[in-house]
Specification:
- By secondary structure, this protein is of the alpha/beta class.
- The chain has a domain of 218 residues: Rossmann fold (3-Layer(aba) Sandwich), CATH 3.40.50.
- Helices cover 43% and strands 16% of the residues.
- The protein contains 19 helices and 15 strands.
- The strands form 4 sheets. A 6-stranded mixed beta sheet has the order 3-4-14-9-10-13, sandwiched between helices.
- Helix 3 crosses helix 10, helix 5 packs across helix 10 and helix 15 packs across helix 17.
- The longest helix has 19 residues.
- The two termini are 32 Å apart.
- The mean pLDDT is 95.
Length: 453
């Protein structure tokens, strides 16, 4: 399988090259030339474990990775999860929750980033190369990426995060990792600032090549393809088409669901759930993509106004027309707003809505009272959004983080201390290391130039 850039400025590349490139040299994102149709495979996949299903799905996209090697990478990746079935589906009367947070950093990002770390190591071993991974995080990606590559030979990781705008536990999960190959950079700004810095640095092709920069954010195709797997896995737990409610900020997680549907997986609708940073919800209501001011909320991993993976969706929505995409992105960059002729209808695949702070708290409280089940604020946004619609199909809400990562918000909503996890409690007394930098490209580049190997 070959991969092309959304912006049309590069020749097709292999899966291995797509993993190492992360972002295309022309600034675009990578997508396969053709999506496989898996509709005839689904019945045979229904009884597979998550690990075995991941092999069957990912091998369709990674046909230049030996089957035995891919199986080994997946086995090692999912062995880091605390439960045997990796991503258990928890079912109550009227509530289905897919728990994606049993990995080493207790967030859904672990599912893909444990795999990506193994892919990086395998590909680099084959080329005798070295990679300096640069990532930006609004909270969970950073720690999950660090957990995926810490201590691996031939890889250094540099994570930009908005200083003071993640939860304490999210920051500690990054800054208490003291391995020599880990660099935590607290940026004086918002996540959008971090993401813009990362994109701009990747856009300097000479700098990217000189310092062998690779991407770990959801711009890396390997992240998206691994996330497709859990949509297939959960959908096959039912004998009828299902819908998913997905809390999202950067559009990567929900985009994987869109691709799963496009591949023939029986998915009815996707509920796109945002917090008060509602740029995506507004787009799917109006067709207008308009940047706002980042709001600091109870669900900080979704405090995003510019969704990096949205470019992939637009490329497909425009019929793979790179010129039209570039025109849209140019208008948005210059004016802070751009629009398409998107028409919302009663049977639209995406159903988008924004959930406020009080409703998030209320959902945490009522879910605990009704089911003795604890949601983190991000997962609560998804559950609240799902409750607004009568879809006529089973709805699976994605639980994207363990509630103990956000103890203040969860405990306040419920009224007692219930959000705990020994893995996180132990971090409070650990030594930390981070470097504070201004939201300035030259400052970040100077740090990279000094510390990259």
């Amino acid at each position: 399988m070959r991969y092309v850039s959304t912006r049309g400025g590069m020749d097709p590349v292999t899966f291995r090259d797509a993993v190492i490139l992360g972002q295309a040299p022309d600034g675009g994102l990578l997508l396969p030339e053709v999506l496989p149709d898996v509709s005839k495979e689904l019945e045979g996949w229904r009884q597979l474990s998550f690990e075995d299903l991941a092999f069957e799905v990912i091998r369709l996209f990674a046909d230049d990775i030996d089957d035995a090697v891919l199986k080994k990478i997946l086995k090692e990746a999912f062995a880091t999860f605390a439960v045997e079935d990796t991503i258990p589906l928890v079912q109550f009367d009227g509530l289905n929750v897919l728990e994606l947070f049993h990995g080493p950093t207790l967030a859904f990002k672990d599912v893909a980033l444990q795999v990506l770390g193994g892919l990086f190591e395998h590909i680099l071993e084959g080329s005798l190369g070295r990679l300096n991974v640069l990532g930006a995080t609004s909270g969970d990606t950073g720690s999950a990426a660090i957990a995926g590559v810490r201590g691996r030979p031939n890889i250094d990781i540099f994570v930009l995060f908005p200083d003071g705008r993640t939860s304490l536990m999210q920051e500690l999960q990054m800054t208490t990792v003291l391995d020599d190959n880990v660099h935590c950079l607290g940026i004086e700004g918002t996540f959008d600032d971090c993401q813009e810095l990362m994109k701009s640095i990747f856009g300097d092709l000479a700098f990217k090549e000189k310092y062998s920069l690779g991407a770990v954010n959801s711009v890396n195709w390997a992240r998206v393809v691994t996330q497709i797997v859990y949509y297939v896995y959960a959908a096959l737990k039912f004998n009828v088409p299902v819908s998913f409610s997905v809390p999202t900020g950067n559009f990567g997680n929900v985009f994987a669901g869109y691709l799963a549907k496009s591949m023939g997986v029986p998915i009815d609708r996707l509920v796109l759930a945002t917090n008060e940073n509602d740029i995506l919800a507004r787009f799917f209501e109006t067709g207008r993509y308009t940047r706002g001011v980042v709001q600091h909320t109870l669900s900080p991993s979704m405090d995003i106004q510019v969704a990096s993976n949205f470019e992939r969706f637009l490329y497909l929505y425009f019929g793979r027309d790179s010129e039209r995409l570039i025109e849209f992105l140019g208008t948005f960059s210059e004016q802070g707003s751009a629009e398409v002729d998107y028409v919302k209808s009663e049977d639209s695949f995406f159903i988008a809505t924004s959930v406020g702070e009080e409703e998030t708290r209320g959902t945490i409280k009522t879910t605990y009272a009704s089911y003795d089940y604890i949601l983190d604020p991000h997962s609560a946004v998804g559950v609240a959004a799902a409750s607004r619609f009568d879809l006529g199909s089973p709805v699976i809400s994605l639980a994207t983080a363990h509630p103990a990562k956000f103890p203040d918000a969860v405990n306040e909503a419920i009224g007692k201390d219930v959000a705990t996890h020994s893995r996180l409690t132990n971090l409070i007394s650990q030594p930390t290391r981070k470097t504070l930098l201004p939201a300035d490209e030259e400052a970040v580049k100077n740090y990279l130039a000094t510390n990259a190997r």
